[in-house]
Design goal:
heterodimer, A: 336 residues, nine-stranded mixed beta sheet, 9 helices, B: 8 helices, 27% helix
């Protein structure tokens, strides 16, 4: 049996662990993390499937990861597992004050029913000139991560609460390491190109809201969830502040009420902060870590920025493939 | 001028409000009293899911299409107003599914973003659009607050001759036949389940031309619960829930949306749609004893009461205006 350690229990760590445990029966998978749901960055995210741009990753890869994730979640939406997994379809509008340069982004053929908003549809957004209407998926991590944990255990995997400060802690007990530590990789993998983009959100009670509304500039959004509506947001680069900022809260609330006036009647249930683990390109590759006389493959899968949930399954599949290749490397079939 | 409105469902209350708003400054005094034995939350309008969606075929009834449109436009104009949530109005998108291609409906340009489903979305034929929800449980109390009228039991309804009621608005829905026999009116009985499934954010209606209107499963999320239905039994007056209908609704609902399987069922409710070949919206003069009484009939809206209520209320107000002219009671008519 190959012992695989997955570092990190956010959406990336858990989905990668599940993917490995379910598709490589010879692996014994253990997830090690300091934080588990509901204390991960993924728990703060609204979880709407809408890709986040990686300036230095080829577009075809981004599209592939997004499509793999969308298709995977779509089949969960239509199954009896949907409620427990926290996955459901959500329709809505992305509106722009200035017509965007790309009217037909690469993901428009992945989401459902994508089309330009009609004049009648735009009338409800008087400050906006252009809009896109489509159906996508919301994946609520407070439920999804628990469901993934259950799936992992069913596949024989284990979960341990333990903060990993260096890969050398793992090299003697594990054959392969998968690094899904998000922002933690700044220290763990000594990667200074990784930085936080601070996002604050409000969760409000507004059960009459059935559509998402997002300003194309990414700064204002309304994402209805199962029990509350997420209002956002902020995109503060290099800001590590985890406590709630009241000026940000009022700004978010005001901007969202302008987009959707009925929100004035909503009650705020909670305010949260998450730090998006941002990098110019996603790091999804293998490197070899040498410790003493051990050479252990480490598969890195981090730097998803604001697009973790949107591409998680696609990157989990690719990371799993790298794990398979590492096993073959370790145990090549001997040729006579 | 004394007006008696019989019936406190969406039709009675909205007609009362419309007439009050248009004429209270032109006719003084104008007293409008609503008489009913059932008011919110126990009316048919309260039980309805509140989805704005006319039947697929208008049977060439241009008038009803006009009333549908007037209602939609009116509600849409209020969607960003401060009162919208109190009124129970909000937008919702969803799917209309068919077993075979259907001609596009008369209301395709009334709703927002109407389109055919893409092959990715469904393996069968259907449409997608954004429409409005109008929830009776919120709307009716809002209407009652706004009407300057009292609501009392019909046993207090004074006869035209004794207490001088000048105009009666007959908004009695399915029981209109008790006031005046109407062979065209029949109950369209329907049971629904109310389910706790807040992850559902789209309505899904299915249509099977062979089984008829409303005989096919539908799922309509609301602000407090999800309505699951699909029963239509013409001529059935029973308002009791029955387990056979419950089982059928639940099975078909779960087939339509598998995620429902683990949802908690909150309760059942059965209502009687006031079905008629066409809406009765007209006026007549009735001789009651030694006095003449004007009657405006506004009933028979079937499963489309909320969908067309405002257009009908406007028309009822028009008919009221004609009665005033006939009696030369408007201030405008003074020389």
């Amino acid at each position: 049996q190959d012992k695989v350690a997955v570092v990190g229990a956010g959406v990336i760590g858990l989905s990668t662990a599940v993917c490995i445990a379910e598709s490589i029966p010879s692996c014994a998978v253990t997830v090690l993390a300091e934080h588990f749901t509901p204390d991960t960055t993924s728990d703060v995210a609204a979880g709407i499937l809408l890709p986040h741009p990686f300036p230095e990753t080829p577009l075809h890869k981004q599209r592939c990861w997004f499509k793999d994730t969308f298709d995977h979640l779509l089949s969960i939406c239509n199954s009896t597992d949907a409620a427990e997994a926290g996955v459901f379809l959500l329709s809505g509008w992305q509106v722009f004050q200035e017509t965007p340069s790309t009217k037909d982004p690469y993901w428009s053929t992945v989401v459902l029913g994508f089309h330009m908003m009609t004049d009648a549809e735009l009338q409800r957004f008087p400050k906006y000139k252009f809009g896109q209407s489509f159906t996508t998926i919301k994946c609520e991590c407070s439920k999804y991560l628990l469901w993934l944990e259950k799936r992992l255990k069913n596949a024989g995997g284990q979960l341990h609460t333990e903060k990993i400060t260096g890969f050398e802690q793992l090299t003697s007990s594990y054959d392969i390491i998968v690094n899904c530590s998000g922002l933690g990789s700044r220290d763990l993998a000594d990667d200074q190109s990784l930085y936080p983009v601070r996002g604050q959100i409000l969760r409000v009670h507004a059960p009459w809201l059935k559509h998402f509304i997002r300003d194309g500039n990414g700064h204002t959004y309304i994402f209805p969830g199962i029990h509350s509506v997420t209002l956002g947001g902020t995109r503060q680069k290099h800001n590590w502040e985890m406590s709630v900022d009241e000026a940000d809260s009022s700004g978010i609330f005001e901007r969202c009420c302008e987009l959707e006036p009925s929100l004035k009647k909503s009650q705020v249930c909670s305010k949260l902060v998450g730090l998006r683990p941002t990098r110019n390109s996603l790091r999804l590759e293998r490197e070899f870590f040498v410790h003493g006389n051990r050479q252990v493959p480490i598969i890195h899968n981090y730097g998803h920025g604001g697009g973790g949930i949107s591409i998680h399954w696609g990157t989990a599949l690719e990371a799993t493939q790298l794990v398979k290749e590492s096993i073959n490397w370790r145990n090549p079939t001997s040729k006579l | 001028m004394r007006v008696a409105v019989i019936g406190a469902g969406v039709i009675g209350l909205s007609s009362a409000l419309c007439i009050h708003d248009r004429y209270h400054s032109k006719v003084t005094p104008l007293s409008i009293d609503v008489y009913t034995d059932r008011f919110t939350p126990l009316t048919t309008s309260d039980g309805a899911a509140g989805l704005w969606q006319p039947y697929l075929h208008d049977n060439g009834n241009m008038q009803e299409t006009k009333w549908n449109k007037e209602t939609f436009d009116y509600l849409l104009s209020l969607i960003n107003s401060p009162d919208s949530i109190q009124m129970g109005i909000f937008t919702q998108s969803g799917y209309s599914l068919f077993t075979e291609p259907m001609p596009e409906p008369s209301w395709k340009d009334i709703v927002l973003g109407f389109r055919h489903l893409t092959p990715q979305e469904m393996k069968i034929c259907g449409w997608f659009n954004t429409t409005l929800m109008i929830e009776g449980k919120s709307y009716l109390p809002w209407l009652m607050d706004r009407s300057v009228c009292t609501v009392s039991s019909p046993s207090f309804l004074p006869s035209c001759t004794k207490h001088g009621v000048d105009v009666i608005l007959n908004c009695t829905g399915v029981r209109a036949g008790e006031l005046q026999p109407d062979p065209l009116l029949t109950p369209g009985q329907g049971q629904i389940l109310r389910v706790d499934a807040p992850w559902l954010k789209h309505f899904i209606t299915t249509h099977n031309p062979k089984s008829g209107k409303y005989c096919s499963a539908y799922i309509i999320p609301g602000s407090r619960s999800v309505t699951v239905g699909g029963i239509f039994q013409a001529g059935n007056w029973s308002e009791a829930n029955n387990s056979e209908d419950h089982r059928q609704i639940w099975e078909e609902g779960c087939r339509l949306a598998p995620s429902l399987k683990n949802a908690r069922i909150m309760d059942d409710w059965t209502g009687l749609r006031p079905v008629r070949s066409s809406v009765r919206l007209d006026s007549e003069t009735l001789q009651l004893g030694n006095k003449q009484c004007e009657v405006i009939h506004n009933y028979g809206h079937g499963g489309c009461g909320l969908t067309m209520h405002w257009g009908c209320a406007l028309e009822a107000a028009n008919l009221f205006g004609k009665i005033l002219k006939k009696k030369r009671l408007t201030t405008h008519s003074r020389l």
